[in-house]
């Protein structure tokens, strides 16, 4: 197995302040670093209006993270994100799939 580059976009509960969002994000990204992956960039977009209502929310806290990891690590990250109630929506894209 070899590592791939990924981009994770997550939308968190708009009630979280930036510090809470960063703490939550770092907690999830530890899964990547614990498995010898790397976090390449982290970009917090802050609160934005959602294109459509999700789980009764009209706004969300956006974060975009680029990382390099094994596919199994990315799958585990996705699984953990989906279990967290503070995370409204996630999308993981493989960047080097071309």
Automatic annotation (TrEMBL):
A GO term, aspect molecular function: structural constituent of ribosome
Keywords per UniProt: Ribonucleoprotein, Ribosomal protein, RNA-binding, rRNA-binding
This protein's record includes keyword Transferase: no
GO biological process, one term: translation
Single GO cellular component term: ribonucleoprotein complex
Functional description taken from the UniProt entry: Binds together with bS18 to 16S ribosomal RNA.
Assigned protein family: Belongs to the bacterial ribosomal protein bS6 family.
Family annotation (PANTHER family): MITOCHONDRIAL 28S RIBOSOMAL PROTEIN S6, SMALL RIBOSOMAL SUBUNIT PROTEIN BS6M
Name of the molecule in the record: Small ribosomal subunit protein bS6
Organism field: Bifidobacterium simiarum
Gene: rpsF
């Amino acid at each position: 197995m070899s590592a791939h580059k990924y981009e994770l976009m997550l939308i968190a509960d708009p009630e979280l302040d930036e510090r809470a969002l960063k703490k939550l994000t770092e907690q999830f990204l530890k899964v990547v670093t614990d498995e010898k992956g790397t976090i390449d960039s982290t970009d917090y977009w802050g609160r934005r209006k959602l294109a459509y209502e999700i789980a009764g929310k009209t706004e969300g806290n956006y974060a975009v993270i680029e990382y390099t990891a094994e596919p199994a690590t990315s799958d585990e990250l996705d699984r953990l994100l989906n279990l967290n109630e503070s995370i409204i929506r996630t999308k993981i894209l493989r960047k080097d799939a071309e």
